[in-house]
Amino acid sequence: MTDIPRSHPRYASLVARERVAEGVRRGYTSTQGLIAQGRGECFDYLIGERTTVAALEAIRAAAAMLLLAKRPALSVNGNVAALAAEEMVALAEALKIPLEVNLFHRSEERVKKIADLLRENGATKVLGEWPDAAVPGLDHARALATKGGIYDADVVLIPLEDGDRCEALVAMGKKVIAIDLNPLSRTAKKATVSIVDNIVRAVPLLTEQVRMLSGTPRAELEAMVREYDNQRVLREAVGEIQEHLKGQTEKSEE
Ligand code: PTJ
Question: How far is the CA of 124 from the centre of ligand 1 (A)?
């Protein structure tokens, strides 16, 4: 990996870029993942590379939803593996559930490499290498899922997901939590809870919330989920981008 000096003003962003490039070199991230990363970087820049108030609200609702779930599932693709393998393992550990590798550009080799990476990072149970079910409405390889994992989950976390699959999971009656920097994406619009934040920042915050709320009475968690309004939170996410951009243009006029 290129050695990036910590003093570089775009340090975090450049490290993330290197990690995705490294994922491609090692064969667990798809080449298309580089394009997805570029799109993410662009939105992160517009957001101001910070976790917004809207994202924090979504993270809290997502934590409550995961804690209330009978069978929560966590999906991992090639970009997620590159950017947040260790953090996803910590989240799975906090919830005591397995992770499932679920790919858009599926190859068995990539699935195995990602599963191995998660295990190297301490995952005790990884699903996805032997899928035994299919999400209805999607063409073959992307539809593959595992019983006892994503296929029969009631709540699924899908970071950096494609809109079609998000929609197909919602159509199966699941509650879907998305992590997507683009508040205008189909995934963000279709998900039950959309965390408009960088996965690198969002997953550790989500794990922290899961730990903090783990002793909270169910009735309180249920109220948090009931009161959460994803459309409003998405509007607020867009509003926070607008405010940030306004601040930036005013600064450059000074
Ligand atoms: O590993 P695979 O085969 O499953 O493929 C994974 C990718 C990500 C390539 C695939 O799912 C894909 O093509 O995704 P999209 O349609 O490009 O959507 C990815 C979404 O994630 C976009 O809306 C990006 O803005 C967003 N995104 C990119 N990087 C980040 C991000 N969101 C949060 N954190 C990021 N670091």
Answer: 25
